[in-house]
Structures are given as C-alpha cells and as structure tokens.
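Forgive a beginner's question, but might I ask you for the amino acids of a protein and the tokens describing how it folds?
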Amino acid sequence: MGAEMNATAKDCISSKAKVQLANGTYVTLDSLKVGDTIKTLNEKGELVDTDVIMFLHVAEEVRTFFKIETESNKAITISDEHLVAIRDGEFKFARELSEGDSLISFDANTGAQKEERIKSIDSETVESYLAPLTMAGTLLADDLLVSCYASIKDHKMAHLAMEPIRFFYSTSNVLNMFMPAFVTNSLKSKKQASGIHWYPSLLSTFADGVFINNKKTVDSF
C-alpha cells in the first residue's frame, strides 16, 4: 500500500517502538523519562548517546499510523507528518515515503549505519503514542533513524527552534555541581501525563499567527 493513505495523527511514534539505552538494552518508548540516555546516529553514521530532554507530545488514544517495513524486516509505526531519515542526511514526512525508498538504519551485526529499502507501507492502529525530544534531535526507533520533529518539513529549522530547551537542559546539568537539586530540577522539563508540551504548542501558535497575518497582508494587495 502506498504512502498516500490517510493517517489521523501527525506528530508521534507508537509508544511500543523500541529504543536502545546507553547500556545496550532495549526498552519501549513509553518507559522513557527525561534524563534517560538513548542511542542515535550522528551525521557520520556513528552510534552515539543522546539524552532525552523533553516529551513534545504524549497521548493515550486510538489512532491510525503508518507501519513502514524494510527489506530486512525492520518496521516502525509512525504518524503521517513525522520526519523519517532518508539518504544524504535528509528527512521526509512519513506520508511522502514510497515502497523502494531508502531509509537509514542501525545494523546491530556490524554496529554501523546502513541504508534499507522500504518493502511495504501499511496502516496500523495504535492505542498510545509519544514524541521524545533528544539533545541530538534524532533517535533510533526500532533501529530506524527518525527525527524528533513533525509537521515542520525542515528538520534543521525545527531543531534550531528547540535550542532554548537544549540550553536550559545543559545549564541545569552544569548547575548541578554548584546548586541544590531542587533548584536545578526546576529548570528541567518533566514528562507530562498527556498532551503537547507548552513550548512546542507556543511555537505552533506563533507560527500559525505569522502565517495568518502574512496571508492577510498578501490578500490586501
């Protein structure tokens, strides 16, 4: 089935996707918390550690996602406007992918990055989903490289917009050496029970406002 099917949520990964912790063990996304260290691939294709610093979205509700499976039988269940890594450091919305496209994966046998062709794209119902934000802006979900971001098509622009969150997280880690834990912990984001975190929600509201105002300006000419 092609990627043009309609999915009903835009910005998350199935909560049952598995990620690799710094110690090499695999856990499901829904077991993660802020401060956990997981694996991702850097721009050189090397396996590296990255901290979870926020959860952009957490939800427990039934939605239809894409199930994207590669020729080596790796599979990820993801929403339609979540960014997925493809070749040459680029990212595409899940809904823009097609059978035969190449994704970036981690090969546990070689310990290296590899390209994998998409074998099939189908729909799958999920009962919960979330979107963790890492310092790197990416993560390996079910050993496939994905962005932490969705809805914004430019991964680098989305990552830049999250710079304040990375700054506060890094600052709190440095302050741990000099200040009481209750002070530094107050700077860190907590995993919300459900919903979209206030910071990306604010960014989205601002972006929508700019778009609407620009459209009004253009329409007035």
